[in-house]
């Protein structure tokens, strides 16, 4: 394989700014206060225990660490290894990380928008068990109404904010998003849908989904989520995993499914060649020059056109990427084409 052209400083800067909104959304959504639903102190679905005892707190911390290790660290370790063994593309590694971040951002947006209380929001009668809300002992619901978070006496902002993020289950969604993304990534690298029917490829690609299912089931065992929170979170995570995968990778049935899409900012050489084609002086030559000059200009353009296509193919090959589907172009180009059709 020929050596790859070094990326210019201008293109690197433009690429950085083009993907900045994607990363900003991922980090900003976790700080949003979000909506908080009303609830009833007499609703039995909200009286499961929520403990802040050191032993229980350590267990929850270990569960969270295990979740991130399984759902994010494992894909971030496995996918670069596959990258090194296959196409060896830094762009592929960037798209992997950004795809995982996108799934987490959309899940967090749903949680802060719905604002459903967790099962352990109300006060509990179990000894040494401290509820998340901590309402007064004699607190009751308003007549012909429900209680709001204003009745809570717990001043821990992080605990209260997390207490109203039950729907959908973040652990279920993130597990299916992270491990589901890994499943799609493996399916693309292995060309699962190549119509050859290799069962080994299917088992290897579906293994991360099995791990995600185990994580999702465990969320109902410690009363952190309702069962429908887990179900919807699992479906949402799977959909988001495929959505995020398709933003940066071709279809699983594509012959180039093992490669990421090309960068949003084209290479300078490709852009300059394309611009030269668009700014060809042939129309002016038809009006101001003779037949001989026109033939020379036409021959030069015919020789230049295949060069552009070749440059594009080499650019994709050098960067280890797949060409993006061609869109309608700029609005000005669409409008210009429409004016030409009218004339």
TrEMBL record:
Keywords: Membrane, Transmembrane, Transmembrane helix. Residues 93-245 form the Phosphatidic acid phosphatase type 2/haloperoxidase domain. Residues 299-311 have a biased composition (Polar residues). It is found in: Membrane. GO terms for cellular component: membrane. Its main location: membrane. Gene3D superfamilies: Phosphatidic acid phosphatase type 2/haloperoxidase. It comes from Laccaria bicolor (strain S238N-H82 / ATCC MYA-4686). One of its GO terms (molecular function) is phosphatidate phosphatase activity. The lineage of its organism: Eukaryota, Fungi, Dikarya, Basidiomycota, Agaricomycotina. InterPro entries: PAP-like (IPR043216), PAP2/HPO (IPR000326), PAP2/HPO_sf (IPR036938). Belongs to the PA-phosphatase related phosphoesterase family. One of its GO terms (biological process) is phospholipid dephosphorylation. This is Predicted protein. The keyword Isomerase does not apply. Residues 280-343 are annotated as: Disordered. The keyword Ribonucleoprotein does not apply. It is a multi-pass membrane protein.
């Amino acid at each position: 394989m020929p050596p790859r052209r070094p990326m210019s400083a201008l293109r690197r800067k433009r690429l950085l700014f083009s993907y900045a909104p994607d990363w900003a959304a991922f980090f900003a959504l976790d700080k949003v206060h979000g909506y908080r639903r009303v609830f009833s102190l007499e609703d039995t679905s909200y009286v499961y225990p929520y403990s802040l005892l050191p032993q229980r707190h350590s267990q929850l911390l270990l569960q969270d660490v295990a979740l991130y290790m399984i759902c994010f660290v494992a894909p971030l370790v496995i996918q670069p290894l596959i990258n090194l063994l296959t196409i060896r593309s830094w762009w592929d590694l960037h798209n992997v990380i950004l795809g995982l971040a996108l799934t987490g951002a959309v899940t967090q947006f749903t949680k802060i928008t719905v604002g459903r209380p967790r099962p352990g929001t109300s006060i509990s009668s179990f000894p040494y068990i401290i509820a998340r809300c901590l309402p007064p002992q004699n607190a009751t619901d308003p007549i012909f109404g429900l209680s709001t978070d204003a009745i809570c006496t717990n001043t821990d902002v992080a605990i209260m904010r997390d207490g109203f993020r039950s729907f959908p289950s973040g652990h279920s969604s993130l597990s299916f998003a992270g491990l589901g993304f890994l499943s799609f990534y493996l399916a693309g690298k292995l060309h699962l849908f190549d119509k050859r029917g290799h069962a080994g490829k299917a088992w290897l690609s579906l293994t991360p989904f099995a791990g995600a299912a185990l994580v999702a089931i465990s969320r109902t065992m410690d009363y952190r989520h309702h069962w429908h929170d887990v179900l919807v979170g699992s479906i949402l995570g799977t959909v988001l995993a495929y959505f995020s995968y398709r933003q940066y990778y071709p279809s699983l049935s594509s012959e180039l499914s093992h490669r990421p899409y090309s960068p949003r900012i084209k290479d300078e050489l490709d852009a300059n060649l394309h611009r030269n084609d668009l700014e060809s002086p042939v129309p002016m030559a038809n009006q101001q020059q003779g037949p001989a000059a026109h033939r020379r200009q036409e021959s030069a353009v015919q020789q230049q056109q295949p060069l552009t296509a070749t440059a594009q193919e080499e650019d994709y090959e050098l960067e280890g990427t797949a060409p993006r589907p061609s869109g309608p172009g700029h609005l000005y180009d669409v409008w210009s084409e429409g004016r030409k059709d009218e004339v």
